[in-house]
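Journal club prep — side note

Before the paper discussion, L.F. wants everyone to see what a predicted structure for a comparable chain looks like in token form. Sequence:
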Amino acid sequence: MAANSLTFAVIFVTASVLFAEAEYQYQEVHGVLQNGNRCVCKMQFSAWEFPVERFGQLQDLSQNCTRSLEERKLEATFVESRIPEFQEELLNLSTQLQQYEAMYKQQLYQPLNFWSLRRDLKQLSSDIAKAQSVPSSTTNLLRKIFTEMLDTRLNVKNLQQYDKHNLLSMKDHLKKMKNRLQSFSIYGNVPIGNCSKGILRNISEPIVAQLNPYGTSYHYGGWGMDSKPGSLQLYWVMALLSSNIYGNSIRTYTSYKNFLTAKSNIDISVKSSFTTTNAIQGPGVVVYNNSLYYNCYKSGEMCRFDMATKDITNVLLPDAGYENKFPYCYYDCYSHSDMDFSVDENGLWVIYATEENYGNIVLSKIDSISLAVMQTWKTKLFKKAATNAFVICGVLYATRYISETEEEIFYMYDTINSQEAQNLKIRFVKYSPNVANIHYNPADRRLYIFNGGYMLAYELCFH
């Protein structure tokens, strides 16, 4: 009986130990034989007690996690409700960035740096000091610009330390102040032109930037929107496809969307050959009221091509130089840019030069239907000293080469009061050295430029 009791006790202890091993952790136990036939084992069960304190901690943690989960759900619901707003903002930002895409792909983008910005600020301070030293009726305006300059200097310092992403915006603001200062020095308070919008003060960064549809090999031509206010939205591109001198067709798009996506274009033949009478010669073209205006092939004649009827009207421009006699130039001349058409709020103009005016620019107002010369103005600006020209509100503006990536409006001639100035300093960014065509469009008040094969558009600021 004693032996059986001992056996049972051993079995019980073994089972308990195995149970303990299965549930918690194995514990080695040594029995002690007492009273001859009794095996007594001492076991420590404290490790197997229910962990009340730890359970409470876990319960609190679970409740906190539940609350956090509910808060995250609410935040996720709120963010999800704002996704359409974020998507719209992203779309707007993407649209703004499109203007830099072509520059980036062609490795033309020049990273901005604070060194150049500080240099520009220093130069602006010097210019303001010079302007303040001269008695002027624009004292209050100069004082305002000086205050803005001081604020800008502080902002640049903060930008350099904290916010480099807004550098481009600050650079554009600085350029606007600089251009305003220059235009105040030139114009003063004298009324310019015959439009109520005021004086040209500044030009934006390119808001449209696309390679022309014919490719990078075609550096000369023109593009834009029909310049007749109120006309149907018609975008057009004309590239000189033969020797960078001659063209015989124009590509059109019936909407801005089609133009951007290069879809649904219509190619219209002006003539069957590049080298035939009334074919297109030179890049100085413009579209006005569904008609293309250009210099006729190998002549001193103006041509008007009606894109609806396909009829061509050609009229001699008296005394005008042609066949590369008076082109635009800087170091190298823009081939066959003798005759340049422009449109403003007053209608159609042609810019050219004559021997009688010593090669200086002559500006004539033209009847858009008959091509008859209505009135003519003679300037003192040598045409080969300019890279291009355009007309706004009866004022002729001319540009010159500054660098491969920068152009400057340096000259103006007001046909209303015959006022002339050659020290304007309104600069703007370009993608390539060659500026084949510049014209202003009064319908949307933008400047359109064909620049080394790129089609660029700019907003204009008037005051």
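L.F.'s comment for the group: The first strand starts at residue 31 and ends at 34. Keep this in mind when we get to the figures.
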